[in-house]
Amino acid sequence: MFWSRIFSFLAVVWFLIFAELANYYPAFLLVFGLMAWILPTVVLAFWLYRVKQQKLPMHYLGLSFIFFAVGLSFFLPLVDRPSMRQALIIFSGFLLYFDLSSLPLFVKHHKNYAVGSLEQINLAMLSWSIFLFSSFFFGWATFLAKVFWPILIAVAGFFFLAFWEMFFLRKIDWKKSYQHSLILSILAVEFFWSVAIWPVGFVTKGLVFSLIVLYLAYLGQAWILGTYNRQRFVSWSIVTGILIIIVLGIARWI
C-alpha cells in the first residue's frame, strides 16, 4: 500500500511539473501538456486493469478522468493570466491525487472501503470538468468561432455524455438514463445560447452555466430515482439562484 501511494504521489508530481512548464513556456504548450498526462494515465490504467481483473464494480470508474484531462487541456490555453493558470493547475493536481490515491484502497481493501468515497471523488472531478468545458466553450465562442452552430453541437454532445456519466456514477442504468440525458443536453444548449450573450467574461459565463448544468443534473437524477418533490425543487432552485447572483455580483461586467 505504501508503494501504491508513492506511485500515485509521483504521478501527480509529474503532472504538476510538466503542467507548470507548459504554463511558463507557452511555445511548448502542446509538448509539455501531453507529457503531463503520461504518468497519471499509466497509473490509472494499471488500477483499472486491477479493478477489471478482480471483477470489482466499474460504475465508479467511467469517463470522469478523460473529461478532466481533456477539459483542463482545452481550457488552460485560453486563460491569459499565468497566476490563474497556476491556481487551476494546483487545484486540478489535488483532485488528481485524491483520485489516484483512492484507487489502491478501493482495489486492495474493497470490503473495508468507505461506501461511495470513490464515487464522490469522481463526481467532484466530473463537476470540475463541467466547469472547465463550459468555460472553454464560451472562450471558443468569444475568441475562436466565426460561426456558432459547431459550438452548439459540441455543447450538446459533451453534456449528453456528462449527464449520462453523472447518472452512471449514481448507479442508474444507462437504459433508463439516456433519454433523460438527451433531454437535459437539449436544455443545456438552450441555456448556453442564453448565457452566451451576457456582458461578462467567458470564465464567469462558464461558472454560471456549470451551476445551471449541475442543477439540471440533480433534478434529473431525482426524477429518475423517484425522489423528486416540490420542497427539494424549491430549495435547489433558491440555492442555485443565490450562487448565480453572488457570481454575477462579484464579476467584472463588460
TrEMBL record:
Transmembrane portions of the chain: 29-48, 60-78, 84-100, 121-141, 147-169, 181-201, 207-226, 233-253
Keywords, sorted A to Z: Membrane, Transmembrane, Transmembrane helix
Organism domain of life: Bacteria
Name of this protein: Uncharacterized protein
Organism annotation: Candidatus Magasanikbacteria bacterium GW2011_GWA2_41_55
Lineage: Bacteria, Candidatus Magasanikiibacteriota
